């Protein structure tokens, strides 16, 4: 019967990858045991390509329905594990995927989005690192409540990332005195980025998220030339002045052969807390003007999210019930799905089966 169950699962496709679970190597285990009075109980363990899979419920429903078509099956139990895939060549030792979060201009909430995505992925069960590559204006440490912490080295003379809210992070804010301006030219920026990437004890990570500085300058160039990047995410606000610069960021990544995993529209709308009326303060739907790229989600303008960032506890942890936090959690799941699609499209078939 086990063979019949396995054959039935060939009819179940991953909704995002559009291929069946068996050929994708996602079926880890099938157990068949007698079930009174004359049938069998079947237990199937499915290894998802990310613990943040946004379509887990759909896969469970389809697996259950397919196995129940096998004669003699009376009950079906579906378990889930997760194994984040990586490109053929890992970008860094122990790191499966490097994801860049960029924007064409400042003031669009890019760092806040990066911090919340990182924490949401970690809450789903993934191992996540966050690298603050905005050397001139680092804000990640403050948003994670670690502005006073200092980076230290280990016995191998590597920087040890600071841990907060389930993620590991590195920021220039934890290396330089508070309030001190860094007056550095390009070569020094390049050196700092190299140290953050390759002279840090990141350990084993499913995702290393890199919060880029605004624009299309030295840091972006240094990163794309130094490490294999799985893809980039563009954060923008809806108004045209932000979209113009976001389009430039997209063009930069295109020239650097970095795939665009999707667009996030931040401050997309505002919901009045007293009346529930929705206001499009900066317009809405502007991300659709950026070409044929997936929209990962729209994040409303929410004063509590700003307060959470100032208090050092990301919104997805401090107030997960708010509209902004729910949107960010959904964006993290959508991004994880896009990463799975991107990495699996690069792998030869022999590595999937």
Automatic annotation (TrEMBL):
InterPro entries membership: FSCA_dom_sf, MIP18-like, Mrp-like_CS, Mrp/NBP35_ATP-bd, NUBPL-like, P-loop_NTPase, YlxH/NBP35
Signal peptide: none
Protein keywords: ATP-binding, Hydrolase, Iron, Iron-sulfur, Metal-binding, Nucleotide-binding
Domain MIP18 family-like: 2-78
Record's keyword annotation contains Plastid: no
Gene Ontology terms: biological process: iron-sulfur cluster assembly
Residue intervals passing through the bilayer: none
Entry keyword annotation includes Transferase: no
Entry binding sites for ATP: 104-111
GO-annotated molecular function: 4 iron, 4 sulfur cluster binding; ATP binding; ATP hydrolysis activity; ATP-dependent FeS chaperone activity; metal ion binding
Protein function: Binds and transfers iron-sulfur (Fe-S) clusters to target apoproteins. Can hydrolyze ATP.
Protein family: Belongs to the Mrp/NBP35 ATP-binding proteins family. In the C-terminal section; belongs to the Mrp/NBP35 ATP-binding proteins family.
Self-association and partners: Homodimer.
Protein name from the UniProt record: Iron-sulfur cluster carrier protein
Species this protein is from: Deinococcus irradiatisoli
């Amino acid at each position: 019967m086990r063979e019949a169950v396995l054959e039935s699962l060939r009819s179940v496709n991953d909704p995002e990858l559009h291929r069946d679970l068996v050929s994708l190597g996602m079926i880890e285990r099938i157990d068949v045991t007698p079930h009174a009075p004359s049938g069998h109980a079947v237990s199937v363990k499915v290894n998802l390509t990310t613990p943040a899979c946004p379509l887990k419920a759909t896969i469970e429903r389809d697996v259950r329905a397919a196995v129940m078509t096998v004669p003699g099956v009376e009950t079906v139990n579906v378990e889930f594990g997760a194994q984040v895939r990586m490109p053929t060549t890992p970008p860094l030792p122990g790191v499966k995927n490097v994801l860049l979060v960029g924007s064409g201009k400042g003031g669009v909430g890019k760092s806040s989005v990066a911090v919340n995505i990182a924490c949401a992925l970690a809450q789903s069960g993934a191992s996540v690192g966050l690298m603050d590559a905005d050397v001139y204006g680092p804000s990640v440490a403050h948003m994670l409540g670690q502005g006073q912490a200092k980076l230290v080295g280990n016995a191998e003379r590597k920087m040890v990332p600071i841990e907060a809210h389930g993620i590991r992070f590195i920021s220039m804010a934890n290396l330089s005195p508070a309030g001190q301006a860094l007056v550095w030219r390009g070569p020094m920026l390049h050196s700092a980025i190299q140290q953050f990437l390759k002279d840090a004890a990141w350990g084993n990570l499913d995702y290393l998220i890199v919060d880029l500085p605004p624009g299309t300058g030295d840091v972006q160039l240094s990163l794309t030339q130094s490490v294999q990047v799985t893809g980039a995410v563009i954060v923008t606000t809806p108004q045209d002045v932000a979209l113009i610069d976001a389009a430039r960021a997209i063009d930069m990544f295109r020239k650097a052969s970095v795939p665009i995993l999707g667009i996030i529209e931040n401050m997309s709308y505002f919901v009045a807390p007293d009346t529930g009326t929705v206001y499009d303060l900066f317009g809405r739907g502007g991300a659709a003007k950026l070409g044929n790229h997936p929209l990962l989600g729209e994040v409303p303008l929410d004063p509590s999210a700003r307060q959470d960032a100032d208090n050092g506890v990301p919104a997805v942890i401090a107030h997960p019930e708010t509209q902004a936090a729910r949107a960010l959690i959904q964006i993290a799941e959508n991004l994880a799905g896009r990463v799975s699609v991107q990495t699996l499209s690069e792998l030869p078939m022999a590595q999937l089966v």
